[in-house]
Structure formats: C-alpha cells, structure tokens
Amino acid sequence: MNSQNMSIISLVLHASWVVQLVMLLLLGVSVASWAAIFRKLFALKRVKTLNEDFEREFWSGTSLNDLYAAAAQNAKQAGPMERIFASGMREYQKLRERRIVDPGTLLDGARRAMRASFQREMDVVESSLSFLASVGSVSPYVGLFGTVWGIMHAFTGFAGMEQVTLATVAPGIAEALVATAIGLFAAIPAVIAYNRFARDIDRVATHQETFIEEFSNILQRNLGAQPASSGHTASGH
C-alpha cells in the first residue's frame, strides 16, 4: 500500500482478511446496536406516556370498576401501569367471587398479583439492555484483537526486508488500528445509551412500585370502610 494513500477506505481494503472480518463484524454489531437504541428510545417514551395518561385517569375520580373495565377492553394498547392495576383488580374480584371477605387475604392476593405483573412488565421494559451492555463491554476487545492480529501480520511481512522505515511500517499499523477505532465506534454509543436507559428504567420501576403501594393503600382503606362492597372509587385519595 502506498504510504501516501492513507484514507479510511484504503486502509480497510488493504487490511488482512482477518482484520476485515473483524471490522465487518463490528460494523454489523454497531448497526444492530443503533437499531436497539432507537427501538428502546421510542418504547420508553411510549411507556412513560401511557403510564402518565393512566395515572391521570386513575386519580380523576373514575371508579375502580370502570377503570378495570376499560383496562380489560384496552389490554393490548394499555401501558404497564394499567396492566398492573388490571392484574390487582382481577385477583381482587376473583377472591370476592369466592366469598372471601378477610381484608388481609384480599389485599395480599391483589398485591401478589400486581407484583407478578410488575416483574413481567419490567422484563419487557428491560429487554435489549443486556445486548447494549454486551456491545459496550466486548466491542473494544474485539477491535483490539483485530488490531493485534493486523500488527502481527504487518510485522511478519517486514521480516524479509533489509531496511524498515516509518513510511514502510505506518500503513500496516494504521490498517490494524482501524479495527480498534471501529470497536470504539460501536462501544461508546452503546455504553452511553445503556446508562441513559438504565436510569430511565429505574425511574419507571420506582414510579410503578409507588403506584402499587398507593393502590394497595386505597384497597385497604376501602376494605376497612366497606368490606362488603366492590364498587369503590379512587377519588379523594
């Protein structure tokens, strides 16, 4: 390779096949990483919007039965918080249909159902995070492997030369270093996105756990006030 022709494209094209394979792998991982980042970005925005809309409706004074009926009809488009609420109400009503009147049993059943639903919802919200974490941690090492291999290949080619100058060595070293650069190009956005999404998901989890406690308190107060009634409202709480 001509030492004067040091563009990125030329460096990639003149690299050894192992280094080119590493570069191709890292570029593919980078594309997949960016796709996962945009999917998660829109998904978290949707979760936040749906949760806020439901919470606003919940505290507007609409009866719990009406909210549950709406959640059952809107199950596919509902947000995580609405599905958590629906799980709690479903278990609560099933226990009431079995003529269980003990407030502790009713409240414990509803709480367990909501916690199980909460875990399912968080599993969905946290999807793709492990992929981003893997990209952020592994990509630099994959790029480094390509660089080491490229340097080894370059120095092997210099073994038969009587005189080795910087102009002779530079192209081979530069070709190898491109692999590390591509590895960092794949890793840095993944790490930044992972940290951002992990923080946002923690906020979503805290928000939903707070709702579970607030809804449990409402059920507890209503059970204490009207243990034989199933038509309570969320107004005034």
| Helical stretch tally | 7
% residues in beta strands: under 5%
Low-confidence stretches: 227-236
Compute the average pLDDT: 83
Span between termini: 75 Å
Q: Roughly what percent helix?
A: over 70%
Tally of separate domains: 1
Number of strands: 0
* Morphology: rod-shaped
Give a quick account of the main beta sheet: strands, pairing sense, barrel closure. none
Structural class: mainly alpha
Radius of gyration: 29 Å
Assembly annotation: single chain
H and E string: HHHHHHH
Explain the overall architecture.
By secondary structure, this protein is mostly helical. It has one domain. Helix content is 80%, strand content 0%. The longest helix has 60 residues, at 166-225. The chain is rod-shaped.
Give the tags.
single chain, cell division, 0% strand, 237 residues, mainly alpha, cell cycle, Tol-Pal_TolQ, MotA_ExbB_proton_chnl, 80% helix, disordered C terminus
Secondary structure elements and pairings:
Elements: H1 8-14, H2 17-58, H3 64-73, H4 80-97, H5 103-125, H6 129-158, H7 166-225
Helix pairs in contact: 1-7, 2-6, 2-7, 3-4, 4-5, 4-7, 5-7, 6-7
Give a short synopsis of this structure.
This protein has helices at 8-14, 17-58, 64-73, 80-97, 103-125, 129-158, 166-225. The protein has 237 residues and is mainly α. Residues 227-236 have low confidence and may be disordered.
